[in-house]
Design goal:
Blueprint lengths: L1 H24 L13 E4 L5 E6 L5 E5 L3 E6 L2 E7 L10 E6 L3 H4 L1 E8 L2 E10 L1 E13 L9 E3 L5 E4 L18 E5 L15 E4 L4 E6 L5 E5 L6 E6 L24 E3 L6 E6 L3 E6 L4 E7 L6 E7 L6 E7 L2 E6 L15 E4 L3
Antiparallel strand pairs: 1-24, 2-3, 3-4, 4-5, 6-7, 7-8, 8-9, 10-11, 11-12, 12-13, 14-15, 15-16, 16-17, 18-19, 19-20, 20-21, 22-23, 23-24
């Protein structure tokens, strides 16, 4: 009799715990956007893919069809048209600004041409000029091209690459596919890279976001196979499992994700770090997701979805206390809304 009573008493506690977990990790359906100081600063764009800032506070961004533009006030000014192969997920993708831009005016782009992805350096002198190809043998396909470019705290240029639909490339250290690459700004291989080539980490499927916290931890988002999207802490020389392991399915020798999305498909793209949290742009999940971190940056303490009514969100960057995001509803997989695609400026209070 006493045992039956204890079982009955425990059941409500179990149900409460399950409810708490569901509430913590399920995307919210709507958020009062006006409460976050959001404003549209550019619209009627064609799949903006990556955002970056010049030292003079101007926003430079790419559109997947090949256009590079600068936002000056409320005016969008085209500064370059890159000849790209735009097919499904391929085209003009990442952009990065050289840390010494005021001295050299260098801009870096990641783009698809034919069956290869390129990383090139340009000089911005009114328009983009003097292309120097740094890498031209990154596998490319209509899917899984990675594409994010960012300079790290060490002054090196990091690039995410996808497996281009060929799973075996991700674990092949002689291939640049399915990796995070690290290169010097002049295109050379850093002497302290773990494998003597451009590979910094491997076993990635389609990583599209990288960011660093103030303690130097490097984070990256990765698309899983249907579900199993990941947020990873990137370690030099680390193996992240694909295609053998993904999500929470891992083993000794493989680095487990900081957060694996097994309960819904997030489809994460660009990420940034702001206010002790990693913010992730969600495509299929149509949201900007905030993952609040522990003090040491090694654990997720809670998370929440924002801006769920904008459609597919492709990139997010933090600049001088504001978040900037771009929508990707005209990429063939979304439903374009009035004025799409857009870039928005957000103040998180």
């Amino acid at each position: 009799m006493r045992r039956s009573f204890l079982v009955i008493a425990v059941i409500p506690l179990i149900l409460i715990a399950i409810f708490a977990v569901v509430m913590l990790f399920t995307p919210e359906k709507s958020v009062n956007e006006t409460g976050y100081g959001s404003e549209t600063i550019a619209q009627n764009l064609e799949v903006p893919w990556a955002l970056a800032f010049l030292p003079d506070d101007r926003l430079i961004f790419t559109e997947r069809g090949g256009t590079v533009s600068i936002l000056e006030g409320s005016n969008v000014k085209s500064v370059g048209k890159i000849n790209v192969t735009q097919n499904s997920e391929s085209g003009l993708l990442g952009v990065a600004v050289d840390p010494d831009y005021n001295q050299n005016h260098y801009i870096y782009l990641y783009y698809t041409k034919g069956n290869k992805n390129f990383i090139s350096r340009f000089t911005l002198d009114g328009t983009l000029k003097k292309e120097t190809v740094l890498l031209d043998n990154i596998p490319a396909a209509s899917i899984h091209n990675g594409g994010r470019l960012k300079f790290g705290p060490d002054g090196m240029l990091y690039a995410t690459t996808g497996d281009a639909g060929d799973k075996a490339l991700a674990r092949d250290l002689n291939s640049l596919g399915g990796k995070i690459l690290r290169l010097d700004a002049n295109g050379s291989i850093p002497v302290d890279n773990p494998f003597g080539n451009y590979v910094y980490s491997y076993g990635h499927r389609d990583p599209q976001g990288i960011a660093w916290g103030p303690n130097g931890i490097m984070y990256s988002s990765d698309h899983g196979d249907e579900a199993n999207d990941e947020l990873n802490i990137i370690k030099k020389g680390g193996n992240y499992g694909w295609p053998v392991y993904e999500g929470n399915n891992t083993a000794t020798g493989y680095i487990k994700p900081l957060r694996a999305y097994t309960e819904f498909t997030l489809a994460p793209s660009g990420i940034t770090y702001y206010q002790n949290a990693v913010w992730m742009a969600g495509l299929r999940s149509t949201q900007l997701r905030r993952l609040t971190l522990s003090g040491d940056g090694n654990s997720v303490m809670g998370e929440k979805g924002f801006f769920t009514e904008l459609g597919r969100i492709r990139d997010v960057v933090e600049y001088k206390g504001y978040l900037y995001i771009c929508t990707s509803n005209r990429d063939g997989r979304g439903t374009p809304l009035d004025g799409d695609d857009k870039i928005l400026k957000i103040k998180i209070r």
